[in-house]
Amino acid sequence: MMSSGEQSSQFSGPMRPPLPPPSPNIALGFNKSTFTYDELASATGGFVQSNVIGQGGFGYVHKGVLPNGKEIAVKSLKSGSGQGEREFQAEVDIISRVHHRHLVSLVGYCIAGGQRMLVYEFVPNKTLEYHLHGKGLPVMDWNTRLRIALGSAKGLAYLHEDCHPRIIHRDIKAANILLDNNFEAMVADFGLAKLSTDNHTHVSTRVMGTFGYLAPEYASSGKLTEKSDVFSFGVMLLELITGKRPVDLTNAMEDSLVDWARPLMAQALADGNYNELADANLEKNYNPLEMARMVSCAAASIRHSARKRPKMSQIVRALEGDSSLEDLNEGVKPGQSSIYNSTTTSDYSQSSYNADMKKFRQMALGSQEFPSSEFAGSSSSDSHELRQL
């Protein structure tokens, strides 16, 4: 990863003549716009370090302002991604048609030589990761947590079930959930997600994602479906419930959030007492019925077997209270656990899962790259990006 000095020199460049006025489609704020490098340089003050609002595995994000006053976030992708201009434009063309109140809108893009930039709307209130794990911040109350869970679930359900072709995010995590000033959730960073044109499993040779959130079958074999996102969403629900990070890399893998929470969720759902599982900072100020629904959604989402995890639309209905929790168990055969799939009948066993997670932890600890939220400048110990497996 570049140092701040290297980043600044890359985008500062020589002095340029006065910039021409923006093209009409930019000035009118159309959702699909092509920007020139100079237009984005002007909007971001020359890509100065003081306008950096995030950085991560893909590159840097700068805040900018268009001539019409619209605030934007300009994501400059690292060179050498291997993506051709035609492929990039085709993907942007599809993503630019995606519109949902719980998804960050893509305003436009820029291709300048080998440089690729994505231009998003600016969301002002940082990320779920920042507000949930940041030091010295007010405790996020239960109603806010539930609202964020439901909003992000709706956005992800739209990507999975209402887009054509369907879109698999591949990197659902607290750092990619942006919040507006009303703490409404907006799913970000799906601009380079995987487009799925059929119902078949996609096998990727390049596993992308964040350690602690990766679905075990995707991390181990590259098998990618919408259910990979569902697992990651379940981990994020556990963060909202417990206030804990997905994994503490200083501890043994047995202390990961998923492993720690599984028996506690089973016990809590059996006896209706969620106090040991719930974030102590909530001081027991939560609605038990709403907590039961969120815990049930989290438990179903992190099943070892991908095919037994619910769809995101089922999770939305469960969180809203519009369906029985049994709706989360569609596809689970009678005799198997109503919340957790049986390790004896799972197509991905507990022992295999533990072995793979141990391997991935060793890889993450050995990595020198520590990407943080793409849209918020704070780093976190659990957000190691796995590149090439």
TrEMBL record:
Membrane disposition: Single-pass membrane protein
EC number: 2.7.11.1
Annotated binding of ATP, by residue: K75
Biased composition (Low complexity): 340-350
Region (Disordered) location: 1-25, 326-350
Biased composition (Polar residues): 1-12
Protein name per Swiss-Prot or TrEMBL: non-specific serine/threonine protein kinase
